[in-house]
C-alpha cells in the first residue's frame, strides 16, 4: 500500500502534462550555431536569401550550400545534458501516467538522439529532403543540389525539409492540442522572436498555467513568464528537471 501510496503522492507533487518549447539555445552547448547571437547564422547569412521560398527560387544553389554546411555538421555534434534531461523528464512523466510534448524549432535531431520520444519538429529536420514536384519526403544525410533526382519521381527539384520564413510550421494542431491539456509550459533556448512558436507562452498565460523561461538571457517575451532561469542550458535545464521531478 505504501508503495502505491508513494506512487500516488508522487503523481500529485509535480505537474503531469508538460509542454516544452525549445530553440537553438538548447543546442548551443553542443556546438550548433544559434541564429541571432553575435556569431549566429543570421549574422553570417541573410535569412531572406537562404531561408525563404523566394531565396530558393532566386538562387537554389546558394540555399543548398547553406543547408549542406549545416547538415554536414550534424555527425560532428552530440546531444548535451539539457537534451538528455528533457528525455529523462519525459520518461519519468510518462511512467507516472502523465504526458510530455517537446515542441522544437530546432532541425538538428539532437532531442531525438538524446532519447526524447514525443518530439514535434515544427520547423522541419535537416536530415530529411523533400521533392518540390511530388512532395515525397525522404531521410537525407548528404549534400543536396539542383541536380539531385527525387527518389520517388526522378524530378531534380529536391529542397531541404525545412520550414522557411513565410511557410506554415508543421504539427501545429498537435501543438495546440497538447497546450490545451498542459499544466506546465516551459520555453528553453529561444529568443521568442518567431511566431507562431513565440505565441505559445501567451496561450499558456490565457490558460493560467505556470510558464517557465530557461535561457541564457531574457527573451523578447520574457515578461510573459511566471518564472525565469538564466544560464547555459546544459547547466540550468538538468537542475530545473530535478526540481520538477521533486
Ligand atoms: N544556453 C541557453 N540559451 C542560450 C545559449 C545557451 N548556451 N546560447 C544562446 N542562448 C539563447 C540566446 O540568448 C537566444 O535567446 O538562445 C536563444 C537563441 O535564439 P535564436 O538564435 O533566435 O534561435 P531561435 O529562438 O531558436 O530561433 C527561432 O528562427 O530563424 C528561425 O527557424 C529559425 O527555428 C529558428 C527560429
TrEMBL record:
Residues given in the record as substrate binding sites: 67, 70
Catalytic site: 123 (proton acceptor)
Residues noted as binding NAD(+) in the record, renumbered to the chain: 23-42, 105-108, 189-191, 215-217, 233
Tree of life domain: Bacteria
Record domain Deacetylase sirtuin-type: where: 1-246
Location of this chain's protein in the cell: Cytoplasm
Residues where Zn(2+) binds: 131, 134, 150, 153
Function (record text): NAD-dependent lysine deacetylase and desuccinylase that specifically removes acetyl and succinyl groups on target proteins. Modulates the activities of several proteins which are inactive in their acylated form.
Domain comment (free text): 2 residues (Tyr-67 and Arg-70) present in a large hydrophobic pocket are probably involved in substrate specificity. They are important for desuccinylation activity, but dispensable for deacetylation activity.
Family listed: Belongs to the sirtuin family. Class III subfamily.
Name of the protein in its database record: NAD-dependent protein deacylase
Gene source species: Parvularcula lutaonensis
From-to range in the entire protein, with total length: 300 to 545 of 545
